[in-house]
């Protein structure tokens, strides 16, 4: 499938640690007619280019030193200003968990090495058509996201209703209704929609995670574990989910299970340097081997300094070794990347309490509660502060 002429002016970035592969893909893109082609030798190099240049399409190897393709993608996606960048992964590996993780993270697709130019051309044409000529459903869903972001709830709901008229059986639209009701403060109704999305698409990982998160916030540990485990069965390499499951197992008193899930994950994804380091750090934190955890997490952070999940674990390690000021610095850096993370504000508030800085602690925990009023843990701590320090919630 030839690339339409109007698409050929976009900026392409080719990321691969093998020089021959970078050259092969770049030559293919040139023959297709693309005019702006940049190359990067690994994920770290690519991240610098993305932060300093206008990039539209990234064709990226998965297994690379320093920072893998999936680590790069996760880091880029955490910053909303890069949401329009399209990622196509290329890999010589066809392990189920690798493919599942790439799909779950939201990549536009993957190609197995070796491949011919026609395969790459077809994949690029497909994703660019979707970007530049979206369907009416995609346009309604994009408008829904924009209205939801600005909390224009009536307009957001109307966009979903219009999309549902076109595709009443769409799991994605039904899932979006769940997100809408969750933000409206109706978690029970949100769960109903998420379950309906799963009924229509049994491998809908995000819906399982969404239900797990609601139950986690409500303090229903066993129900949260049930849904996170279901998501884990489908896609076993999601770092954030693995860490969440481990902590939930610990809360449920299943200490051996909490430790083994992290151990198994580390051996499974050892080639992902910062990810495996992150998991090892969490494993040591769970055993209160905090100095060792801090050492490993600092290394993981240096490998991938914009991964907010690693940053949260690092901040926890700093708190546990008695360096709360360092933890606050890390929390502030996370909020520069994502200022709507309720648990970062919550943990920042708890850190200020440890430091004896009461006013900042109250402000941070209030902000956490505004962002996530369903959290039993945040609500309980805020009420305790309100009773002790005599302020209204």
TrEMBL record:
Transmembrane region(s): none
Q: Which residues form the Response regulatory domain?
A: 11-128
Any single biological process term in GO = phosphorelay signal transduction system
Report each TPR repeat as a residue range.
Answer: 171-204, 205-238, 274-307, 308-341, 342-375
- Sorted alphabetically, which InterPro entries does this protein's record hold? CheY-like_superfamily, Sig_transdc_resp-reg_receiver, TPR-like_helical_dom_sf, TPR_rpt
- Sequence positions bearing 4-aspartylphosphate: 61
Q: Which keywords does this Swiss-Prot/TrEMBL entry list?
A: Phosphoprotein, Repeat, TPR repeat
Q: Which Gene3D superfamilies match?
A: 3.40.50.2300, Tetratricopeptide repeat domain
Show the Pfam families listed in the entry. Answer: Response_reg, TPR_15, TPR_16
What's the protein name?
Response regulatory domain-containing protein
Gene source species: Dissulfurispira thermophila
């Amino acid at each position: 499938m030839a690339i339409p002429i109007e698409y050929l002016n976009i900026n392409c970035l080719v990321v691969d640690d093998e020089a021959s592969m970078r050259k092969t893909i770049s030559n293919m893109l040139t023959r297709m007619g693309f005019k702006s082609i940049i190359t990067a030798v690994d994920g770290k190099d690519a991240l610098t280019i993305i932060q300093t240049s206008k990039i539209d399409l990234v064709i990226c190897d998965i297994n690379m030193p320093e920072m893998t393709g999936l680590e790069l993608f996760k880091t880029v996606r955490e910053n909303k200003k890069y949401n329009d960048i399209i990622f196509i992964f290329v890999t010589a590996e066809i392990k189920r968990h690798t493919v599942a993780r790439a799909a779950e993270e939201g990549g536009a697709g993957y190609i197995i090495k070796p491949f011919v130019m026609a395969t790459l051309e077809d994949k690029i044409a497909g994703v660019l058509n979707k970007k530049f000529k979206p369907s009416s459903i995609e346009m309604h869903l994009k408008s829904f996201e924009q209205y939801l972001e600005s909390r224009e709830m009536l307009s957001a709901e109307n966009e979903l209703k219009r999309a549902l008229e076109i595709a009443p059986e769409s799991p994605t639209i039904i899932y979006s209704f769940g997100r809408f009701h969750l933000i409206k403060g109706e978690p029970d109704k949100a769960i109903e929609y998420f379950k309906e999305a799963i009924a229509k698409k049994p491998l809908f990982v995000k819906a399982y995670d969404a239900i797990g998160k609601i139950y986690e916030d409500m303090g229903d540990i066993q129900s949260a574990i049930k849904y996170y485990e279901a998501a884990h069965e489908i896609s076993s390499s999601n770092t954030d989910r693995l860490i969440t499951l481990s902590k939930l197992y610990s809360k449920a008193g299943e200490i051996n299970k909490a430790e083994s899930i992290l151990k198994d994950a580390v051996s499974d994804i050892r080639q992902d340097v910062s990810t495996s380091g992150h998991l090892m750090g969490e494993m040591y934190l769970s055993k209160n081997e905090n100095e060792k955890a801090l050492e490993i997490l600092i290394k993981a952070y240096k490998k991938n300094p914009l991964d907010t999940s690693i940053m949260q674990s690092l901040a926890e390690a700093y708190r546990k070794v008695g360096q709360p000021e360092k933890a606050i610095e890390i929390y502030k850096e996370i909020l520069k990347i994502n200022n709507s993370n309720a648990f970062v504000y919550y943990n920042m508030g708890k850190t200020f309490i440890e430091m004896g800085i009461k006013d900042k602690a109250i402000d941070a925990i209030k902000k956490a509660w505004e962002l996530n009023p369903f959290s039993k843990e945040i609500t309980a701590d805020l009420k305790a502060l309100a009773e002790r320090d005599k302020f209204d919630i």
